[in-house]
């Protein structure tokens, strides 16, 4: 091997992970730019993205990966989030009025003070989600709730307009079936 190239080999191994990370970041920025232009991103990976306070009204994010995303106070009115993975996301104060959340994974999500009025919640997975002070008025019923985990509801506006008065109490999925 050329004596000139031998010292460069360790440097290649040191720089390669950094270059891969930069490439992923550039690709992610391209995806976000495309999303802003087209308002669509079917099946894209937006895990951990910060869309806090953003206007994402009527956006199409079907089957998107939004795990761990920050969507606090985001406008997601009439957004299509069908089959999206939004586990561990921050949706505090998010406006999801009329959103399609059919078959969406919202396990371990923080939906405190979120507005889910008139949204489609069929088949949505809320395991261990926090729905305290959320508005579920006129939301579609979730008949597919499964599992033994629980959901936190506290002064939550339920689909029938009633307000749950249970605070610091987790409701089992079985009880939630009767509520939703």
UniProtKB/TrEMBL annotation:
Secretion signal span: none
> Matching InterPro entries, A to Z?
5peptide_repeat (IPR001646), Pentapeptide-BTB/POZ_domain (IPR051082)
Q: Which organism is it from?
A: Nostoc commune NIES-4072
* Stated name of the protein: Pentapeptide repeat protein
Q: Name one Pfam family in it.
A: Pentapeptide
Q: Which Gene3D superfamilies match?
A: E3 ubiquitin-protein ligase SopA (2.160.20.80)
Q: Which domain of life is it from?
A: Bacteria
């Amino acid at each position: 091997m050329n004596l000139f190239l031998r010292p460069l080999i360790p440097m290649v191994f040191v720089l390669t992970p950094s270059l891969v990370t930069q490439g992923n970041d550039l690709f992610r920025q391209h995806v976000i730019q495309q999303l802003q232009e087209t308002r669509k991103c079917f099946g894209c990976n937006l895990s951990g993205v910060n869309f806090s306070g953003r206007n994402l009204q009527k956006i199409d994010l079907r089957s998107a990966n939004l795990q761990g995303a920050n969507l606090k106070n985001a406008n997601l009115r009439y957004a299509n989030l069908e089959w999206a993975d939004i586990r561990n996301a921050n949706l505090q104060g998010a406006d999801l009025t009329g959103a399609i959340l059919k078959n969406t994974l919202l396990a371990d999500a923080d939906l405190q003070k979120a507005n889910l009025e008139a949204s489609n919640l069929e088949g949505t997975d809320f395991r261990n989600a926090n729905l305290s002070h959320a508005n579920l008025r006129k939301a579609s019923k979730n008949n597919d709730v499964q599992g033994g985990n629980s959901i936190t509801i506290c002064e939550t506006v339920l689909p029938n307009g009633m307000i749950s008065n249970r605070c610091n109490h987790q409701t089992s999925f079985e009880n939630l079936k009767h509520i939703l």
